[in-house]
Automatic annotation (TrEMBL):
Keyword field: Flavoprotein, Oxidoreductase, Plasmid
Annotated organism of origin: Rhizobium rosettiformans
UniProt keyword annotation of ATP-binding present: no
InterPro entries (alphabetical): FAD/NAD-bd_sf, FAD/NAD-binding_dom, Ferredoxin-NADP_redctase_2
Name of the featured protein: Thioredoxin reductase
Source organism superkingdom: Bacteria
Pfam families: Pyr_redox_2
Tagged with keyword Nucleus: no
Every FAD/NAD(P)-binding domain range: 7-147
Length: 324
């Protein structure tokens, strides 16, 4: 197997979490290779809001500016490539990409994100991110001036309907699902209207929503529908490496500690893959924490210190003693 140079860290996924980590590792003068497939979760969205970056930028230009900034650091290699598999070999990780190259690194950061599993309702997927929206905290301020709907798409949906009633008159579309008596009472106390019938289809011009068709032959005017979908991890790599995986109400996440370390030594995870809450700011914060933890782990690695020590006249001996 012909290997590339040995990187300090390989990052699988170059979006908000991965690029933030890459930037801070590069600023620590570490050699980093980022592999990215180019399909960030919010790619369907016209405009990100509630993020820490400029609200008037579209999501593609926000990410492109992060990518361009990271590319200016000489120790970063950015590859528009998928990581297909990872093997742990003699203390290194060897990532094989789609082109068949083998890339070696001492630490591995997983930041490959998740994909939403949308309900199979005609007219829904093409409106995702435009008039069918995931989160009132991102879009409730802008879209919550008129009556909105919430689709029963996951165990979190009743809570989403309760929350949206803070912004605007809300109808909860049960879509043929169940709603127990106490939940029904809570929703009604918040003036949330409940429609029991299955949803047949959504309609409107282009990606805009105008009407919702129900199986009991009702046709209701509706501009905005919210839903909290279940999700799936974008890659099996974490599972293949043996990382502990948690299962939450919306799907699987990779278990990490406060420093973003997974259950496997020297493997870290950041962003949506390790949290049930999807959010750009939180993904960036995870990336930053992971970068700091990786940098500490590399800096205080005993073999590394001993190697530096030999060329440094004993300056780092104190660290080595501390670690013994
Ligand atoms: C419709 C919609 C609108 C949203 N709007 C907002 C908003 O307004 N504000 C907000 O804060 N959040 C918003 N979010 C949530 C936000 O998109 C996510 O929280 C954020 O993108 C998570 O960043 P991440 O880096 O963890 O993962 P992602 O952004 O999903 O990036 C993961 C990256 O890894 C790549 N990848 C996957 N597999 C591989 C592989 N095997 N090899 C290499 N690369 C791989 C993917 O292609 C992708 O580029 C929205 C989400 C959706 C669905």
């Amino acid at each position: 197997m012909e290997l590339s140079m040995q990187y300090d860290a390989i990052i699988v996924g170059g979006s908000f979490a991965g690029l933030t980590a890459a930037k801070y590792l590069a600023r620590a003068r570490r050699h980093v290779c980022v592999l990215d497939l180019g399909d960030p979760r919010h790619r369907f969205s016209a405009q990100p809001t509630g993020s820490s970056r400029r609200y008037d930028d579209d999501p593609h230009s926000v990410l492109q500016s992060m990518w361009d900034e990271v590319a200016t650091y000489p120790t970063v290699t950015l590859l528009a490539e998928a990581a297909v598999s990872v093997q742990a070999q003699l203390g290194d990780f060897v990532v094989t990409n789609w082109s068949g190259e083998h890339i070696a690194g001492r630490r591995l950061l997983l930041a490959f994100g998740v994909s939403d599993i949308l309900p199979d309702i005609p007219g829904l997927s093409e409106r995702w991110g435009v008039s069918v929206l995931p989160c009132p905290h991102f879009h409730g301020f802008e879209y919550g001036r008129k009556p909105v709907g919430v689709l029963n798409a996951s165990p979190q949906s009743p809570q989403q309907a309760m929350l949206l009633s803070e912004w605007c008159p809300t109808t909860f579309y049960l879509d043929g699902g169940e709603c127990d008596v106490s939940m029904r009472e809570t929703l009604e106390s918040l003036k949330v209207r409940i429609e029991a019938a299955p949803v047949k289809r959504l309609a409107g011009v282009g990606c805009n929503l105008a009407r919702i068709y129900l199986a009991d032959n009702q046709i209701q005017p509706l501009d905005t529908l919210f839903l909290t979908p279940c999700h799936q991890l974008n890659s099996p790599i974490a599972e293949e490496l043996g990382c502990a995986i948690d299962t939450g109400p919306l799907g699987q996440t990779i278990a990490v500690n406060a420093q973003q370390m997974t259950s496997i030594r020297h493997v870290y995870a950041a962003g949506d893959i390790c949290r049930q809450t999807a959010n750009i700011t939180l993904a960036c914060a995870d990336g930053m924490k992971a970068a700091m933890a990786i940098h500490h782990s590399l800096a205080f690695d005993r073999d590394n210190i001993e190697q530096r020590d030999r060329s440094n006249g004993g300056f780092h001996a104190g660290y080595v003693n501390l670690l013994r």
